[in-house]
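TL;DR need structure tokens for one chain.
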Amino acid sequence: MKKSLIFTIGLIICVAFVIFVVKNKKQSTLVTPPQHIAMCYQYVKETSNGYQDRALLEMNILGENVTGEYRNLPAEKDSKVGTFTGTVGPMDPTIGGRIAHLWWNSLAEGMHMTEQLNIEFGEGSAVALFGEMVDRGDGTYVYKNENNLTPGFQMWQTDCASVQDMIIVEQYVRDNIKTIAPEKPVLGGSWYATTVYINPSTKTGTATYEDGHIQGKIRFGYTRNGEQVMINSVQPIQ
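>> reply
TL;DR here they are.
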């Protein structure tokens, strides 16, 4: 009887030990889900003719994957904007940052295309890399020589709320300039925005527009709630 009791107790201890080992092994093999990281950058510089060179970058990183939007807006050259998907590499000590290897769904002068785009980024700054592009055979454009690329505007890191303001509010103004402009177009024309500048710190902006015959310019105030934008003041600029 005594031996049977000792055997039973020993068996219980062994089973408990096995359960403890299995449970801890499972816990040790649990994979921590990747952390979502949002990083945003901008470049703004006024040119000698009163316009602005601008670039905006929004990156949403999850593990090795990245999505976002890049808007390259030089004052005196064609603008190119669009969303992207891709991957990010590990820290590269030679550049003090990482490289995002992207497929950019760009829009320029009314033409859509998918093209390769590399962006070097880190804490504090980011820069897109441009080079000669060739069609790889399926309508997607890739770098002809990935080792011979030229940096674009050197963007500095900023809060993503400001970048989202600049992207969302600018697009809203461009889409709705016909109703935002205080005056009527002439000779059967229709208003379209030529430049839109947003100042997120003051929740204001300026826009110039024309109808093919005359030009107008306004200063406006706005509020934004997510994708919803409200223009709450409009003042003509002479």
